[in-house]
Specification:
5 helices; about 45% helix
Length: about 170
């Protein structure tokens, strides 16, 4: 049995309209990307990328999108991403573009990169703070940006007294 290797492309939806991010759906992002691949690379590129192309994760509030495709065709996908100029959702078109942040072999590496990226963004915001309350709020967000190892592999998340340990 042969294992198919995938690549995960971490992107960010950049738009001037803040309503754009909250109205997008994974189906709309997938259709816009497939359309861009078809326009740029034609039927060949569309066929190569469509074999295992999926939108694995979409966070509408932060505009983060995680795409999966085959290892053989991830360059076709990455080269077509700048040609996504708008997303259509609920019969409305929102002008935006996709900024590629990271290409990784696993979802885990993309998660680690995203945490580091968000930490850097928060530190840049911290430098631009105007008052002390904003500064404290951003410092709290920076300190909360880390991965924790699961303490038990069995999935039990309760202590002896019955409370959860989150």
């Amino acid at each position: 049995m042969v294992r198919f290797k995938n690549r995960y492309v971490l992107c960010e939806v950049v738009s001037e309209d803040p309503r754009c991010r909250q109205c997008i759906e994974d189906r709309a992002v997938g259709l816009a990307i497939r359309d861009a691949i078809g326009r740029v690379h034609g039927d060949y590129g569309l066929a190569c990328c469509s074999i295992s192309f999926t939108v694995k994760y979409l966070n509408a509030y932060t505009g983060t999108v995680l795409l999966r495709c085959r290892k053989d065709s991830y360059r076709l996908l990455c080269s077509a991403l700048p040609f996504v100029r708008q997303l259509e959702s609920r019969n409305q078109r929102y002008p935006c573009f996709l900024n590629t942040l990271h290409v990784g072999g696993t979802i885990r590496t993309c998660q680690k990169f995203l945490i580091q990226y968000n930490r850097r963004q928060l530190l840049m915001l911290l430098q631009n703070c105007t008052n002390e309350e904003e500064r404290r709020c951003i410092q709290k967000s920076v300190l909360s940006c880390f991965l924790t190892e699961e303490q038990s592999q069995s999935g039990d998340e309760e202590d002896d007294d019955g409370t959860e340990t989150d």
